[in-house]
Amino acid sequence: MMEKVISGNDAVALAVKLSRVKVTGIYPITPQTYIIESLSEMKDRGELETEIIRVESEHSAMAATFGAAAAGVRAYTATASQGLLYMHEMVWWVAGSRIPVVMTVGTRAVGPPWNIWNEHTDFMSERDSGWIMAFASTPQEAMDLSIMAFRITEDERVFLPMMVGMDGFILSHTKTRVYVPSQEEVDSYLPPRRQPYVLDPEDPIAMGNMFSPEDYMKLRESIHRAQIASKEVIVEAGKEYMKRVVPIGSYSTLNESYKLEDADYAVVVMGAWSLDAMQAVDELRKEWLKVGVYRIRFVRPWAEEEVVKALKDKSVLVLDRSVSFGRGGQLYTEVKASLPDADIKGVITGLGGVSIGKNEMKAIIRKFVERPQGIEWFYPKEVGKIELRSPRYIK
Amino acid sequence: MSLGVRDILNKHKLMPGTSACPGCPENIAMRIISTALGENAVFVVVAGCSSVIQGMGPNSAYNYPILNVAFAAGPAAASGIAAAMRTKGKNVKAVVWAGDGGTADIGMASLSGAAERNEDILYICVDNEAYMNTGGQRSGSTPIGASTTTTPSGKRHNKKNIPFIMMAHRVPYVATASVGYPHDLMEKIKKAKEIRGFSYVQVLCPDPYGWMFEPSKTAEVAKLAVQTCYWPLFEYENGVLRISDECLHCLDKRTRKPIEEFLKIQGRFKHVDQQKIKELEEYVDEMWEKLRLMYKGNLKL
């Protein structure tokens, strides 16, 4: 293990290399592009044994990755935003085939209008696809979860693909201290590739052809059950990771609690701004406001028991960096479904790169505690003054 | 070639009990092609009749490992398989099996990308000139004048000439074939399998239901398409064009059978007028003029 100052994209590229990925289908899209550039450079320098397929679209990136994985090797790809939406069909195809694949999503707003900055709507739009979905809050975690992903997806209790979300620019491009494990450490952690079916002329099985309604529904149920079974696999993989690979981190649970034990109020967040929320909480605690943070790390599987245990007696504020139009924030609806009788409020903010830092977090939490009306959409003060300029006739 | 009946019968790559319609040209094509391909192949089947012909999963009438994928994903998925097989040190050919809709329309970008990268895969397009699996709608490969369920009064535009598009990609091997000429098709597939790099074979597959002819006449229609020179048989290997013996007569318009003979044996051209026939003939003439120039070495795509 060694210490390096690198970006989230660098950290993920290193994770791919250390996991001995054999094939990766690559296509550029901001803000994950640096991952695939970094892999290409490593390949050119002879440091990477991975076959790189430089495809012509994200749909093909996932298709090529899927084909390689189905043929029996570790396969990886990365995408973001429009790219994830473009590959949406193949994202489903992989999960429906129960084939382990790992993907990074450098989260970003979805157009129109064009916006390259961060939000979580692209990632959250894949909640129903059958993938395991983790979300990092630091470059360190992006790397850790990416390595763990191979172990989790290739466990016979799971056999599902996994995507790791990472806030675009905020994590993907920001350099920070990361503990990078050695090849030996990762080798001792990742077993050889396992998967439910392999394309092999010596055993000519067919994958994905027409199923009877009964068989189809059984397969759907198996995906659901594998998602639920993956919870214990994730915890095992996390504990083992801390033992063998990187001894820092908090991977013995799916999600993470911060100062929640004695808290009256809980703020639920996901991703990089969890750390801003934690800072805000630290400062609010000095004002004798008993508030803590609950950080969602796994959107799928949903850690129902953990969520209920952590939040059941508290007033809950859920911050969403994404929106399901006409309904509200996705995390809000998830938390609400776990605690139907609890006092829960949801706030949507930070969309399309609107900057939400520690001070904005404090303002949101204070408003929540004071209970004014109409804080479902929160804008920082300086943004609040700006009028919508386009489309022209919409008030 | 030395393929006797015994060899063919012993292959068993197309199992009994497919869900194909009577007279299905794709079923015929699979029998011929699998005989030529033999072992060490993995099939990628994109959405189309062939996703259905193989029968209800998890069983399959195609005795190959098969990855069924989404419509536009075939060439990319095959690229991934080829890469994986390379890293495993296995000599296995990844074969894409797609219809003309999956090829000329929705899969074009993916096909072009795989060709540009010169992936070591074999792409087979079984061309029945419409979306037959969904009931016979027009595709980019439907010829001018042909009526389909979405062009009831006849298609207004020419067939997209995909073999020419593929030749323009300068891939190592491009060929056309017809289920009416099994030996020609078999030879081409055998050759394509040995090519290192991208090869493309488009097989004309006359469909009794979409084209509206008796299911017993599939081979006859497939032959007439070649004899009237509507469908050329050629192969393009490393920039050199070879015309198959079966249609050398097409190089000269005077020795071609009239195209009407091909049109009148099927129902989809029933309503065409002389103007449309003329336009179809112009398409055929122009195609053959290009092929003639390439054949003489005076044109390179």
From TrEMBL, chain A:
GO terms for biological process: response to oxidative stress. It is an enzyme of class 1 (oxidoreductase). Signal peptide: none annotated. Its EC number is 1.2.7.11. It comes from the Archaea. This is 2-oxoacid oxidoreductase (ferredoxin). InterPro entries: PFOR_II, Pyruvate:ferred/Flavod_OxRd, Pyrv_Fd/Flavodoxin_OxRdtase_N, THDP-binding, Transketo_C/PFOR_II. Residues 16-236 form the Pyruvate flavodoxin/ferredoxin oxidoreductase pyrimidine binding domain. Residues 263-357 form the Pyruvate:ferredoxin oxidoreductase core domain. Heterodimer composed of an alpha and a beta subunit. It comes from Stygiolobus azoricus. It catalyses: a 2-oxocarboxylate + 2 oxidized [2Fe-2S]-[ferredoxin] + CoA = an acyl-CoA + 2 reduced [2Fe-2S]-[ferredoxin] + CO2 + H(+). The keyword Oxidoreductase applies. SUPFAM superfamilies: Thiamin diphosphate-binding fold (THDP-binding), TK C-terminal domain-like. GO terms for molecular function: 2-oxobutyrate synthase activity; 2-oxoglutarate synthase activity; pyruvate synthase activity. Keywords: Oxidoreductase, Pyruvate. Catalyzes the coenzyme A-dependent oxidative decarboxylation of different 2-oxoacids such as 2-oxoglutarate, pyruvate and 2-oxobutyrate to form their CoA derivatives.
UniProtKB/TrEMBL annotation, chain B:
Residues 136-153 have a biased composition (Polar residues). One of its GO terms (molecular function) is thiamine pyrophosphate binding. The keyword Oxidoreductase applies. It holds the Pfam family TPP_enzyme_C. Its EC number is 1.2.7.11. The keyword Oxidoreductase applies. Residues 48-203 form the Thiamine pyrophosphate enzyme TPP-binding domain. CDD domains: TPP_PFOR_porB_like. Keywords: Oxidoreductase, Pyruvate. Residues 136-156 are annotated as: Disordered. It catalyses: a 2-oxocarboxylate + 2 oxidized [2Fe-2S]-[ferredoxin] + CoA = an acyl-CoA + 2 reduced [2Fe-2S]-[ferredoxin] + CO2 + H(+). It is an enzyme of class 1 (oxidoreductase). Catalyzes the coenzyme A-dependent oxidative decarboxylation of different 2-oxoacids such as 2-oxoglutarate, pyruvate and 2-oxobutyrate to form their CoA derivatives. Heterodimer composed of an alpha and a beta subunit. This is 2-oxoacid oxidoreductase (ferredoxin). It comes from Stygiolobus azoricus. The lineage of its organism: Archaea, Thermoproteota, Thermoprotei, Sulfolobales, Sulfolobaceae.
